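As a representative case, we now present a protein record of this kind.
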Amino acid sequence: MDDPTLTPVSPGQERLWFLHRLTAGEPTHHISVVSRLAGALDRTALTAAYDAVTTRHESLRTAFVDLDGTPRQRVLPPRPTTIAEIDLRHLPPAERETAAQTRLDAAVREPFDLADGHLLRAILLRLDDEDHLLATVVHHIVADGWSTNLLYRDLALAYNGQPLAPPPRPYTEVVRDRHSRATDPEVREYWREALADPPVLDLPTDRPRPAERGSDAGAVEFRVPAATVRAVRDLAIELRCTPFMVLMAVYQLLLAQRSGADDICVGTPVAGRDDVDLEDVVGYLSDVVVIRGDLSGEPTARELIRRTRTALMGALTHQGIPFEQLVADLDLPRDASRNALFQTTFTLHSTLDVATTTVDEFAALAVTPHRTPPPGIAVDLALEATVVGDAVDAVLVYRADLFTASTVERLAAAYTDLLAAVTAEPDLPLHRLPLVDAATRERLLVAGAGPPLDTAARAGDLVARTAAARPWAVAMISGDERVSYADLIDAADGYARRLHAEGVRPGDLVAVSLPRGPHLVAALLGTWRAGAGYVPLDPDLPPARHAALAAEAGVTAVVDPTGVHRRAPRRRTVAPETAYALFTSGSTGQPKAVTVGHAALADRVAWMVPAYELGADDHMVQFASIGFDTHAEEIWPTLVAGGTLVLLPDGPATLPDVLAANPQVTVLDLPTAYWQALLDVVTAWPPALRLVILGGEQVDAGAVAAWRDRHGDRVRLVNTYGPTEATIIATAIDLDADDAHRRPPIGRPVGGVRAYVLDRHGRLVAPGTVGELCLAGAGLADGYLGRPDLTDQRFRPDPYGEGLLYRTGDRARWRGDLDRDPVLEFAGRLDRQLKVRGVRVEPGEVESVLAGHPDVVQAVVVARDDALVAYVAGRVEADAVREHAAGLLPALFVPTSIVTLPSLPLTRNGKVDLAALPAPHLTARTLTSAPPATDAELLVARIWSTLLRVEDIGVGDDFFAIGGHSLLATRVIARLRAAIGVDLPIRTLFARPTLGAFATAVEDALAAELAELTDEDALALLAQTGPAR
């Protein structure tokens, strides 16, 4: 029989009730107001005042009941209020404030029991005879910001002895009316269009985004100066808008600058009291409207404010649709790691909170507000501003699991600076506003400048000096063959004579296409000694491609296994200073030749020799194919330092074979992906090994951890980054133990290099913000051979220094303190950024998590048909990798399909060959859609089928993918409780959304309960629940 005392809840209350259960009573939705009371406090009058307030406002004595997974509310009779009193006068005066804050924090965070009806909590801390702190804490399900003003007004009136009249309308009547009122179809259609395909705010974070949204909050307070506020008001008057619109527009601008997006959604609360009778009702009546900021087309500040005004007016005209209805209409994908629809809010209060009352309002007491840390936060970032006279006091509340206080302090300062800049020049295009202040600009330039370099001699000349000083030292080892420096110079001179005989002159290019071996190194050096630059071509290339590249380069001669040949068809002359021209593949798939000068190579070698501590005793493996610029990092620094190259022989021998045969190897220079693959293959590394240089791809923290576990600190592990256009490498860093637990950085600029992280308009971005990594200074290539158009496109004038800068097309950001330990963190290619269901996904982030599984050797993630597909190498099951990823990544970041392979295909230079990855044969559902078989699977399938009205659910089906949502999840838990007496947390279904995984959780919970029963009790329980259990 229906209980007449139970009444429906509003859609907003239903959402908060669900979130309360999902987050196990976390304080995210607690509202607290704390005031300092100075004067003689009448505690009896205060208690009576609270009693009067709870009697007047029935929402404050409402209990919420779970009725088969659906919440209902019941208003309870008035009952006395208990004020928790804490006396701190026994403590030394200097300790009382700290102790009071600790007690207040605990009181604010203490969970509420929504079922018992005590949803207002009062705490009184006595610091001195006439000095008290009074805290009032309510749950958001029964109150909102407007309500706290009413509550304190009524508390003051009652404390002063004035009677409180009943509100114009009871709260339950208001809720019942709103529950039954259908939203206007025109309003719903407006929002469906206004928020179609809403963007996800992707601010750069200091910590990886966890799989589930955290609620711990931090706060940074700041003040907007009076002069700026006056300018805001003047501009608002000029544009016929409100100061709120100006402040909101500039906040959207700040978010756009930090995220790189031009489509920004910001939530802002509205009172929800469109009827005058509701202005005196305490309850959860407020709602949030979404203001979609459009910063496209490079508008001026004036135009942006106009756009914001239009969006805000439209939102206010069409308010009244419940947030839950809006989310359902938009059919947004579920993401437990962030708030739906908007990830940031902006709130402007026109006056200080009503808690700042006067002596006349709170008899004989001086009442001032007392700020406390926020108990929690439901979005990533929230800006709350309050007009205080001519100034604005503001606080940025942030998710502590994503951001650090220093990052948010920079955001606050940037917001204040932007307000001043926008109001000073409202007609200036926004892309001309600086992203950082002058001081930060200088710090970024200092952090991005590598150590100075002296002018260096050419690498070929330095090799000749080494040969003259140590002619009989071993320059190269190839199997059993030993080649001295004298023999190397003799062989190089032989090639130079033959090239001269074929007409090669200074400024010519020579194609060198030889297999690994002493003759290859001699031919490269001989080309230089002939005054030409070399074009290295992989001898294994198909003949047609080989010929096409030689023709494209316009080489004068070709050196191949058959000898030295003049090439007549076309001759290209380059600067005599050209050391080599190396073909790379572009994003268009068309190869382009990068020309590198002798000065650039000399600068790089001059940095490498001391940085890698290379000397005559070193043995470096020459592993890289001649077609990739790493060969120059292996060959020339080693020979300049007088060391020995250990050549990887042509034929069946592999690097592990060479390492086993050459225990004297001290240095390895390997592609990152290949090194990671070797970790499970090579069990005995050369005992003399002291340095491993990595480059080419992002290194996984798990691989660094495995290396450190095996080698400790005995072997240096240097991570490098650099495009061919910056002469091999541009940044480097020694990876230490800390890099085994975070995304390993790519370091700082090497000698003579300048590194900038810029936005698309060439502005320095703020620390922590992702932008395009651009390089300048020593080591920059001359451009693209015969492609002046492409050279002009990628090599641009350096606005922050002399010469040109190169736009790498790579994304990066500065991490760490700019003044102490700044490092660059690689964030992926601009052209590898993926978007899945409207959310930007960086493959490298997902790959890093997958590679963190102990049985995964290597991982790569690609997008296929708007879904993520992961390829993992290792002895591991796909389900195990998926479960690992689901525990660490947002749901949208977990690959739909996971393909396990013995090893990932690699290109000739040791990078993962994306084109060779096999297509996933089956979708994730097809792979895991076997019918339920166990008792637990059958029970869960029946419950899901009933609630979702879906038949034939398989063990691999995802509850949320087949129609489930958060509120239905509560009913699943309620049905399970009714069927077998097991009360699982709601979060279990979010963590294990497939039928099979959830059924296993049910079995585990039952097993845990049965383990605590006697045999007789267990048998009785099994008999009572039947075969389904």
